[in-house]
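Protein entry
_____________
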Amino acid sequence: MTTTTNDLKATDQLSRDALAVLQPGFEGTTAPDWLLRQIADGLGGVGLFGRNITTPEQLTALNAQLRAERDDLLVAIDEESGDVTRLEVRGGSSFPGNYALGTVDDTGLTRDVARELGHRLAACGVDFNWAPSADVNANPDNPVIGVRSFGADAALAARHTVAYVQGLQDSGVAACVKHFPGHGDTNVDSHLAMPRIDVGLDTLHARDLLPFREAIAAGTKAVMSAHILVPVLDADRPATLSPRILTGLLREELGFDGLIVTDGLEMQAITGTYGLERGAVLAIAAGADAICVGGGLADEATVVALRNALVTAVRDGDLPEERLADAAARVRALADWTRRAREAVAGPGAETQEGTAPGIRSDVGLVAARRAVAVTAGERPYEPVTEAPYVASFAAEANIAVGDETPWGVVGELTALVPDTRGDAYTLENAEGAESAVGGAEKLVGDVLAAAADRRIVAVVRDVHRHPWMAQALDALVAARPETVVVEMGVNRSRPRGALHIATHGASRVCGRAAAEVITGKGAGA
């Protein structure tokens, strides 16, 4: 059989369309050769993670290197701010997260925070943010959403999702509301297994879908799908792989015409059930336009395998060529919007101010964190900490989205106000040898008291309501040392404890700073 020029052109276009829908990650702080080759061949986007970023200057240089290969490349990042930060993965975010913003409930403030974040992203060459989380945190035991949500009230989550989208896109950065059709009522992390949401259509529309409906009306450029099973919509396939959910509900019923991108396809909810390559084919066939992969898989072999799987699926009749071409066209349309937005929106050209990181134009992040703090005093008058305290951080394993490389707590921020502050982290694993969780909590408290000696104790927790051992340790510690200050940096659902109970509604660096100001009575937030 003779291969014609038209056959070769068709094959080349098919391969370029398959590459266009991929948004992979990579290792390192400069672009590897393989990535530059794939960009030249038509790769539609790349995803940036904390491993790729050291400083704003380095990130700007990296993105210039990527765009030198092709100017219409989408450069995406998972920068929710708050607990989930990639820009400031080693020091903690200059902005509070969604839960803190929802607690303040000032949509103008949320818009300002998102706009400042967008200015910083744009200044570094990032034009697509996989944020914000529009999930309504209806299940307080949710192990993966929590403070990433604006809150448990659907109307509140909707109005702040809209404000965030507007602020981000005003700065020239495309927003991506997630995780459709809503990941808030789960008790399983989709990084690890397949979550399931068993609610009726009325609840789904009134609660989970409301923020997405409002964000679509406000013009969000992208929506990210969730790897969750919602039987009332599709009893067989998770949202990412469901034509009923992505095409029938999101496209046709809700009228969304922008880019649909999957959550990280290497997550176990997909790979453990369908496999990576089949999952990619099913996702595009279902209505997704872009495949996010790279949080865990970040090499050329993954990109080539996914490209080949899509091409083969078209040739075998398992994926309509028109569907792949349509998906690729939506990726290119978003890239065109971001390119024009980069040209239209001036960079911040800002000076660093207190409470911010390089490139931020104002201290809006610290202002927001201060406003989000809620303080409950104990029975006795509170005496501010004036001498170096001992900070005991009771920690559970962070979910994968947050990661364990970003610092949290108040040690660093307290040290800036009271030199020689000391502290340590305590987990149930530290109490190895204890016969029960209760025994483990008692052992941890003994360790804290021994380490603290005569110093005031500041106990820092995150989501204490989800961890009985943590609650037991706090109760025992406060009983032994009533002057203990308790700082809750997660979802605030437990009863107040201690001489002072401070809820920061998030664990970003500025949330720690706001708490430290209250503890010491120093600073604008005290």
Q: What stands out?
A: The two ends are 80 Å apart (CA to CA). The first strand starts at residue 22 and ends at 24. Residues 53 and 218 are 31 Å apart (CA to CA). The first helix runs from residue 5 to 20.
